[in-house]
Inverse folding.
């Protein structure tokens, strides 16, 4: 059974519709990454789940309990939800251990705080004040504080954004371990696509307040539903075509397609699904970027300028004539690019 069920959420601020018909489920132990451009409603969705904002319509259930719905509103402190924001937001005058114990109740609150600190490797910092911590340490304290009351769900709103790359990976795996150990679930808002692809069990893409796709990272990356998802998650080439079942006629010639379709379609062809070859579609290299592990080329063809992820040994440079072959079927998208 799913842990969290969100159904038909609607939210307006004045005239602008910020969330429209948002629904999804979250399973125990699962990390769902929420992706979307700035202003697409990610924070508003998290705030509704936490009880900091009230939806205009729809409902949210955690286990068997309705958190919010027609005529029902459970206050934030009774929801069993932990929230970590982009900034750690610690109490500056309290020691680390008191920050973590702050929201806890009962006689064993000290012990719970110490446990949460230990789980995130923070015991040695227990007596420091927030201004004696690095950014990464402060964010770990914020995580410990959110995890200490043993929430059923952890909401993470771009919590790693202010940390540098090395630190991010470390903290991410600590969060993963804590989520597994406590058998809770997490909803992670991130701008970082690699983070979303690597860290999450499933991804949800929000566009203008609508959930346009939800699935495993592989599903969403390899089978984007719309031109927006295809271009938002990674890079892609969008092509027009006329589909005839398992193939389409395009400016690049006849391409295999998935899934089967008929009639005019928009297609997505990822840069790593195009290869330089002796035979194939002719083009001219207009730009090149060496990335270390591979080389990105921009190639002008009859289908416009295509982005190609070429082998790290590729010598092709601007001005060179090259030929391209697709290595995977193009993906048929819904709607217009
Ligand atoms: P995201 O987190 O995806 O960047 P937000 O949920 O913060 O997006 O915001 C979505 C939209 O709602 C934005 O256009 C934002 O300006 C607007 N918005 C958010 N909160 C409020 C509020 N309290 N009052 C009015 N408008 C708001
Ligand atoms: Mg936000």
């Amino acid at each position: 059974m799913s842990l969290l069920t969100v159904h038909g959420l609607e939210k307006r601020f004045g005239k602008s519709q910020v969330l429209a018909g948002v629904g999804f489920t979250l399973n125990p132990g699962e990390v769902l990454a929420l992706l979307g451009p700035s202003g697409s409603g990610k924070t508003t969705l998290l705030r509704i789940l936490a009880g900091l904002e009230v939806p205009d319509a729809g409902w949210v259930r955690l286990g068997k309990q309705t958190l919010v719905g027609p005529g029902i509103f459970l206050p934030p402190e009774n929801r069993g939800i932990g929230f970590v924001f982009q900034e750690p937001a610690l109490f500056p005058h309290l020691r680390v251990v008191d920050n973590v114990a702050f929201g806890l109740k009962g006689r064993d609150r000290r012990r719970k705080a110490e446990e949460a600190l230990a789980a995130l490797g923070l015991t040695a910092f227990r007596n420091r004040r927030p201004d004696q911590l690095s950014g990464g340490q402060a964010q770990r304290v914020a995580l410990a504080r959110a995890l200490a009351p043993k929430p059923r769900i952890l909401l993470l709103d771009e919590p790693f954004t202010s940390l540098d790359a090395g630190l991010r990976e470390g903290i991410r795996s600590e969060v993963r371990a804590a989520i597994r150990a406590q058998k809770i679930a997490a909803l992670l808002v991130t701008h970082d696509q690699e983070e979303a692809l690597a860290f999450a069990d499933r991804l949800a893409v929000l566009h203008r307040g609508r959930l346009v796709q939800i699935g495993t990272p592989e599903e969403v990356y390899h089978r984007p539903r719309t031109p927006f998802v295809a271009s938002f998650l990674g890079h892609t080439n969008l092509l027009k075509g006329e589909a005839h079942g398992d193939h389409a006629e395009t400016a690049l010639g006849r391409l295999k397609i998935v899934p089967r379709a008929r009639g005019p379609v928009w297609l997505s062809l990822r840069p790593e699904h195009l290869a330089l070859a002796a035979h194939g579609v002719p083009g001219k290299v207009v730009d090149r970027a060496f990335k270390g592990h591979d080389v990105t080329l921009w190639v002008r063809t009859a289908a416009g300028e295509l982005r190609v992820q070429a082998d790290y040994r590729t010598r092709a440079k601007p001005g060179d004539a090259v030929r391209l072959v697709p290595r995977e079927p193009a993906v048929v998208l819904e709607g217009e690019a």
